[in-house]
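Worked example (supplementary).
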Amino acid sequence: MMYSFLLKNFLLPFGDKFLGGGLPKKIKELQGLTRLSAVELKSLQNQKLGKVLQYAILHSPYYQALDISPSADPEEFLSKFPILDKQTVRDKIDQLITKKSLDGLQAVMSSGSTGPPSKVYFNKEEMAATRAVQLTWWSWAGYEYGNSILQTGVNLNRSREKRIKDIFFRTKYIEALKHHEDEMLKELHDLRKKPKDHYVAYASSLYLFAKTALDHGLSDIRFKSVISLGEKLLPNFREAIEQAFHCKVYDTYGSSEGLMVASQCSHGSYHIMTPHVYLEVVDENGNEVGPGEMGRVLLTGLDNYTTPLIRYEIGDLAIKSKKTTCDCGMELPMLEEVLGRTTEFLKTPQNKYITVQTVVRVLKFFPEVEQFTLIQKTENSFQLQYISKEQLDECSQQKIKESFETLYKESFLFDFQQVELLPRSKSGKFQLIINEVHENV
Ligand SMILES: [Zn+2]
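After joint prediction of all chains, the assembly is encoded as:
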């Protein structure tokens, strides 16, 4: 507990002086806000909404050009804004941002599973706001300052700031891009010797580690809780993870552009973080649907002043909950379900997993590929269907193939097909990977 005291009272404030952004104050504020009544929460949200909309029409050239007249009622004001799609954010980021210079800003690259990556910009305060939401969610999952964390991720270059945070937060970060079984086994054996309090990772990564532990009868690895992020946590994933690690899984739901949407409380409800984000669920025509009905998710970031994201369509489908109270005592509204984000894997001939994140990370370095679907045709052959202005030349094709081969240290057969349209799933979403070989991984 000594470390917890040190972290909270000295290391965090000191780290904040170094990194900036006011994180400790923001965490304290936010934890107070989550205890407000439903009425107070709504009023706070409307107030923040009005402020960010007003700021956008005054300072963002993109929104200035739309010539939207303000309304006194923030929700009515919001309804005058068009839906913002990913393509627009990609193409018009220079006009969206409200700052003339990028100095001191941090670019957040989305690695979402609904198309090519896009980029948004945050200042230090906005980065800290996002981090404060994350730490608040962790506290719902039982995290206390000073607890140790295992984190697996797909970040090839962990920034200096992140490495400093890793030390403060006693985080062991494992790069799990490849999910090689031997590497997973080694980490699992390490955990038996040096247990960690919490495990934070992408749903697919958690699942693969859990599955490896179960397959090899490693039944003595325990966490206080597991926190899932980045992908839809499928029911069979949750089951395997809880079985393997003897604890509850807390699922969180955010967009890769840094909007933190909802997280599960100790009673399993997905509470929407209304002091940070305004969430609409709308039908095909953009009209709001009622609780219990499925629709497209639109998000408005209430802390995003550098890059206003207003009615931003992130490509998910969700259902708002009819429930208005939760036994945990918090009065934040709830989501019943998030659908439409599917998690699939491809497998190399030597049984290494290829996740959506890995494919996105590799193809990010080939901007000429505008949109793509990677299809596993046989055990050893893959087809990249892609949309691009021009057909990929031999050299680019070779480089893409080599990137995968270098990463996985195996050789693959790759063929490339330029297409007009990519295959869509039933829900109408892009599928970044399709596995035609393995029915179930
Ligand atoms: Zn609750």
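Two points are worth noting when inspecting this output. The two ends are 42 Å apart (CA to CA). Residues 57 and 66 are 8 Å apart (CA to CA).
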